[in-house]
Amino acid sequence: MSEPVSLSQLENRDDFIQRHIGPDAAEQQHMLATIGATSLDDLIKQTVPENILINEQMALGEAQSEVEVLSWLKQIASQNQVNKSYIGLGYYPTHTPNVILRNVLENPGWYTAYTPYQPEVAQGRLESLLNYQQMVIDLTGLEIANASLLDEGTAAAEAMAFAKRTSKNKKSNLFFIADDVHPQTINVVVTRAELFGFEVEIAPADKVLELDVFGALFQYPNTYGDINPIEKLIAHVADSKGITTVVTDLLALTQLKTPGELGADVAVGSAQRFGVPMCYGGPHAAFFATRDKLKRSLPGRIIGVSKDSKGKLALRMALQTREQHIRREKANSNICTAQVLLANMAAFYAVYHGAKGLDTIAKRVERLTSIFVEGLKHKGIEVKNKNYFDTVAFATDSKTQIVARAQQKQVNLRTDLEGVVAVSFDETKTANDVVELFDIVFGEGHGLDVKALDKVITSQQTSGIPAEYKRTSEYLTHPVFNTHHSETEMLRYIKSLENKDLALNHSMISLGSCTMKLNATAEMIPVTWPEFANMHPFAPIEQAQGYQRMIRQLNDWLIEITGYDAISMQPNSGAQGEYAGLLAIRKYHESRGDSHRNICLIPSSAHGTNPASAQMAGMKVVVTACDAKGNVDLDDLRKKAAEVADNLSCIMITYPSTHGVYEQTIREICDIVHGHGGQVYMDGANMNAQVGVTSPGFIGSDVSHLNLHKTFCIPHGGGGPGMGPIGVKSHLAPFLPNHPVVQIDELDQANGAVSAAPWGSAGILPISWVYIALMGAQGLRKATEVAILSANYIAKRLSEHYPILYTGQNDRVAHECIIDIRPLKASSGVTEMDVAKRLMDYGFHAPTMSFPVAGTLMVEPTESEPLCEVDRFIEAMIAIKNEIDQVEKGVWPLEDNPLGNAPHTMSDLSQAEWNHPYSRELAVFPTEQARNNKFWPTVNRIDDVYGDRNLICSCPTTESYAE
Ligand SMILES: *Cc1c(COP(=O)(O)O)cnc(C)c1O
């Protein structure tokens, strides 16, 4: 206490590093001593192969304080000029209800949770996601919906792949796209079609009548706002057994006949305008709905209703057997991280407003549009639309003047069409805004009066929606959408769901390969600054200078960290990054006349998204073996690479490996593949074990994605958002994704887009930016070192109780370790699932279960977990081991013990009868710390099989909860 103030304290700089990193210097010493290393440096030398170790410090500058960094970023943000937007094109200004803004978007109880792999401690967000599905089902008029995809463009691309899987028209290889779909959607779909080898025809919608297709894509209302008659076209496609997808808008569907009623098989779109800010492109949730009979082919995650071991209704992720970890290259899609937080926001928006509120919002939007149309008519301007909901386009000779006047008033219109101006209305616009628009279109003194125009519309009952397209069916009739309309009730509903979920604000979430580190509040604050939140992704680039500067800076930092030459910020998740990276590899080979190179080598230990992405990129997967120590079997790799040499496209390899080990032979692996003319794709999910000590570029890889939502502090949001930018060496840089609406740098316009927005989910990039700025080069390296220290500390302490599956040189693990439950299972009958569920009784979220090895748990503590928490976790694991011993010894029968019965609920505790051979106390308060900081799972163990056999993916009635 009595130490004098040091100079560095006066500068107040490394303050944040010490708060991001859990263990302090003394604790680190204790941990080092436990594992037998003298210093962090010594540990790194013992752990990381010498031939990949980088000793120079990264050129990232010094750590800075939170105050400094936030004021620096504020100054950058202020270079964004946020105009009033009428651009539309799939992105609309919206009022995020404040109760949702503060209690969901800005609330760590919601944003720090993980994908609900452990449903017993995730019933809150599962219920909210089920609401999302119900909302989409109701509004689209279809029978089943998933719980979010990454954006509208990729949802449409998924729909094309879905059409190919499910269409009975097996002889056609042609996919039709109406030319009045948003340009970015068309582009994303076309990019994907090329990789799949589908033919595509883009033409006026009617053209489909002359074609025999396996699938067709229409937009309703279309990109110009027209409510186009598409039933005949849908019927034609159905006649030839094709699958029709309709891109649509949820707000419009409150007023329009549904895609389901029009006969469509699939509806996709974005839920952005349901309360999620535009954020310069994302993150937003996309939706995907279809017919019940096609449900097993649905891409993405589906929430289903099941029951728990006591027969109580409980929710879970359904049909996981369709997903990448099991089906790998045969999976329905490569979607892993989705957009859970944003789907939850949209669902809450619907819960908050209800059917009536949404109807009012939509009717206001339609009325404002009608008034605007009426005004144009008065002035002799005919709109191009036959019909409309919120968007109209009109031809004009005075486009230049109109655009100039709009600019002066800080208003953005849609102007990308020759001789045409289009405007899209939204819930934030008012009658005064229509007056302003008239001023812009006609100049002041136009004499138009909104009240008078409104009178004309009311008396003549003018509507942009033709009678035969008016919606008559009900929607959002479920009680959840009709209960929580006062702010008090809404607040309590949000809180009641939050209480059911275990997130990082309760305890450590040691999910291996997921890097659940601190998402510091300072990192989150800029996300909701209006300068960042309210920017339209297609706003003129000179208005987005703040964003551009922030993105460029982050680019430069990531280049320094990865050792690559260029970065693309477009992919919205790690899996999308894989897809974009493989696409670049493919284009590179093509550019050299090597189009035949289409084999992708993937070690058997790889994450499931790797083979799924390779399949999407039109590659053939050849699996290479791992040896007994979990390392890539070099002989097998050499053999297989040689066998396919002429056709070798690339290898996908994770480093450190998914087994949590720095493989010694990584450089050799790169050399073998390069030697046969292949490229190296290094999955960067494990970058948290590389930053500052090595880098993919230095190791010899050609391209990687970075999960900014793992290593670089973007919170997981309960299963998204994420960002998966890719880094590439210079020879791949010309093949990075471009964008059809906003040109990116000097990239070739022919390069297709992989996301709907040019810089992906740009709105969450400030999080990673702030993290790097706060940590500086030294802090980042320290984070890596402590992450490795912490994993080795856990491995060391638990190794006396459980086998640790794989280790590298000097018996060290990287940033995570695998605990093998299989021997215990063999001797006691207790499973890895039992251990995972029992951890809940101790107040912990389970580690990653059965990935990458079935029957194991993979633990990744990260640098952020304080030693006391790490110790508590270790003690819980040791206590659980003692419980397993009791089962093994026969003290507790296998059918009735605290492990098999876990998790225990409050309801278990309060049963009058207690007929178990262990006490209630042991059931729910197995340790003092569990008692002091109890987390109550709200349901007992959930029956997965029952849920998949009896698949229900819509909201159950309130009564069924009571049963
Ligand atoms: C998380 C992860 C991915 C997928 O990333 P998403 O962002 O979830 O799509 C890929 N590979 C590995 C090794 C991962 O851990």
Automatic annotation (TrEMBL):
One of its GO terms (biological process) is glycine decarboxylation via glycine cleavage system. GO terms for molecular function: glycine binding; glycine dehydrogenase (decarboxylating) activity; pyridoxal phosphate binding. GO terms for cellular component: cytosol; glycine cleavage complex. Residues 18-440, 464-737 form the Glycine cleavage system P-protein N-terminal domain. The modification N6-(pyridoxal phosphate)lysine is found at residue 710. InterPro entries: GcvP, GDC-P_C, GDC-P_N, GDC_P, PyrdxlP-dep_Trfase, PyrdxlP-dep_Trfase_major, PyrdxlP-dep_Trfase_small. Residues 783-904 form the Glycine dehydrogenase C-terminal domain. Keywords: Oxidoreductase, Pyridoxal phosphate. It catalyses: N(6)-[(R)-lipoyl]-L-lysyl-[glycine-cleavage complex H protein] + glycine + H(+) = N(6)-[(R)-S(8)-aminomethyldihydrolipoyl]-L-lysyl-[glycine-cleavage complex H protein] + CO2. The keyword Oxidoreductase applies. Its EC number is 1.4.4.2. Its cofactor is pyridoxal 5'-phosphate. The glycine cleavage system catalyzes the degradation of glycine. The P protein binds the alpha-amino group of glycine through its pyridoxal phosphate cofactor; CO(2) is released and the remaining methylamine moiety is then transferred to the lipoamide cofactor of the H protein. The glycine cleavage system is composed of four proteins: P, T, L and H. Belongs to the GcvP family. This is Glycine dehydrogenase (decarboxylating). It comes from Catenovulum agarivorans DS-2. The gene is gcvP.
